[in-house]
Structures are given as C-alpha cells and as structure tokens.
Amino acid sequence: MLPAGVTGERLQSIADRMAEIQRSWSVDAGQFDPAREIQIRRALADYTLFMSGFFWESVKAGSLTRHYVREGKRAFRFVAEYHRAHGQAEASLYQTLGARFETYAAVMSYMRDVHLGADFAPWPHPVFARIR
User: Fold this and answer.
1) What is the residue-averaged pLDDT of the chain?
2) How far apart are CA 74 and CA 62, in angstroms?
3) What is the DSSP string of 29-80?
4) C-alpha span between 107 and 78 (Å, rounded)
5) Which residues are CB-contacts of 129 (< 8 A; sequence separation ≥ 6)?
6) 37-77 pLDDT, tens per residue?
7) Is the pLDDT higher at 1 or at 83?
8) Are 4 and 11 in contact (CB under 8 A)?
C-alpha cells in the first residue's frame, strides 16, 4: 500500500515523496513536522529497492535505473545516519542496504524470476494493477 501524504493523496513516485519531505519542513504551510522526514525517507528507500529489484523492467523502460539507485542509496544512508545518531543498532542494517543496494535489487529480481516464473515479469502484472 502506498503511504499517504499530509494532504491525503497517495505518494506514488519518488518526486511525490521528495515533495512531501519539503512539505514536512515548511514552516509557513502549517504542515511543519520534521520528524516525518525519517518515515518518508524510509518509505522512499523501500520503494526504490522494491521497484529496482522486483520490477526492474519497468524502471529500466522509463530510463530511471540510475535515479532509483541514487535516491534509494541516499535514503538508506539518511535513515542509517538517523539511527546511528540515536545510538540504535538498526543503523548498520540500513548502512548495508544502502551500500549494497544494487546487489539486493539483483537478488530480488533473481528471486522473482525463480519463484514466480518468467511470465510474472511483464509490468503491470494483473495482481499489482488492482492495488492502486
């Protein structure tokens, strides 16, 4: 399920999530909530890894591979630094996810092909078309 922004609309793209981060820091808009940035960045990291791995054909077709990898790594690093600054053990997990982003995306793609078969690969798959 896609996360909802402060205005209630679903955050469907990287751009939507980045705009939501800006809104969370907007003092004048009345939606000032900097603590929400960590939630948005975590969702962004998960989204980019999932899409880059499980639906890489869709990402590749849109010429978005580099963008997804860059933003996913950046989001995982941000989350890792947040947890490190708070002395939380999760920091090393997020640091590893960011550092090995491409490897984990490739593993997800491999698992999809092996466990779901080649006919699952076309995007959008009917199972996920209903989720919107």
Assistant:
1) 80
2) 20
3) TT---TTHHHHHHHHHHHHHHHHHHHTHHHHHHTT-HHHHHHHHHHHHHHHH
4) 23
5) none
6) 898 899 999 999 998 888 877 787 778 888 889 999 999 99
7) 83
8) yes
Angle formed by the axes of helices 90-99 and 36-54, nearest 10°: 40
In order of 49, 50, 73, 84, 91, the CA distances from 14 in angstroms are 12, 13, 13, 25, 23
What distance in Å separates the CA atoms of residue 31 and residue 34, rounded to the nearest whole number? 9
Tokens standing for residue 82: 């947040």
pLDDT, average across residues 108-127: 68
CB 44 within 8 A of CB 12: no
Q: Which two tokens stand for residue 122?
A: 């076309």
**CA atoms of 62 and 58, how far apart (whole Å):** 6
